[in-house]
Design a protein that fits this description.
10 strands, 10 helices, Rossmann fold, alpha/beta, five-stranded parallel beta sheet
């Protein structure tokens, strides 16, 4: 069965919009990006459109690749702006930027994608302020299936700090046994064929095909690759679909739910602000 990410995303957004309207909330998200990556500009504008659809104010600040100092100054300015409740760094950052320093400048209570060392530490300690948006989207999709995942074998392909590693942690929280694969894994198929839940988070088209999975697997494809003007995930969808109990398509699967998680975290950041919790560091 193909999971309809757009339908799930709409359900989340409807709840967010209702809460904002009922309470007359005024959340504000700032998106900061550097460079001229056209896909990133599209993603940023998509987030702005989604924000406005639920009553969240949002704007994008653009910088050139050689404007790291100005970029950092803007982040610091946004940290101190009480009218801004969420800050999001639009990926990818230019190679010349010091990525971790950039992430760690963001006020943790405004870090709605959970990319700072502080917030990632809280996540792995089991006491998160926010859950990173794409991992949280994957978690939400799985929970929405109403399946008991206790004892299931989850295989995560990908080990990035902002997706592969945190989503593996979230699968552990569902009481699954987790195997994490990556670019140096020998005989990837050996592991993907064992998966009850297979999560792809690499960004490599056709990385996994139908011969590499077992029947009845739940496959969540969070990979994104642009090829010949089209968007693809990490799996060869046509060859794997018939083997899957559930599968997320690309596009239309994890992506729309991830955008909704941006909205949800921004709302949570706003509620943190109105509860005067900004400077608490538990």
């Amino acid at each position: 069965m193909v999971i309809d990410g757009k339908s799930i995303a709409k359900e989340i957004r409807d709840k967010i919009k209702s809460e904002i309207m009922q309470n007359n909330y005024k959340p504000h998200l700032a998106i900061v990006m550097a460079g001229n990556d056209e896909a990133s500009k599209i993603y940023a504008n998509t987030k702005v459109k989604a924000c406005k659809s639920v009553g969240i104010d949002a704007n994008v600040f653009y910088f050139d690749e050689d404007e790291e100092k100005k970029y950092i100054a803007k982040l610091e300015e946004l940290n101190n702006d009480t009218n801004v409740h969420g800050i999001m760094v639009e990926m990818p950052l230019p190679l010349s930027f010091n990525k971790q320093r950039t992430y760690d400048i963001i006020d943790p209570y405004k870090d709605v994608d959970c990319i700072s060392t502080y917030n990632m530490g809280r996540l792995f300690a089991g006491n998160p302020l926010y859950i990173p948006c794409t991992p949280n989207a994957i978690l939400y999709i799985l929970k929405n299936l109403n399946i008991d995942f206790t004892g299931k074998h989850a295989v995560v392909v990908g080990r990035s700090d902002i997706l592969g590693k945190p989503v593996a942690k979230l699968m552990l929280d569902l009481n699954m046994t987790v195997t994490q694969c990556h670019s140096k894994t020998i005989d990837l198929e050996k592991y993907t064929r064992q998966a009850d839940v297979l999560i792809l988070a690499v960004g490599k088209r056709n990385l996994v095909n139908g011969d590499m999975i077992k029947d009845g697997v739940i496959l969540v494809d969070a990979g994104i690759t642009e090829y010949d003007g089209k968007i693809f995930g990490d799996c060869d969808f046509d060859s794997v679909e018939r083997h899957c109990h559930y599968i997320t398509p690309v596009p239309g699967g994890v992506g729309p739910v991830t955008t909704s998680m941006v909205l949800l975290n921004t709302l949570e950041a706003y509620k943190n602000a109105i509860k005067n919790t900004y400077r608490e560091r538990s």
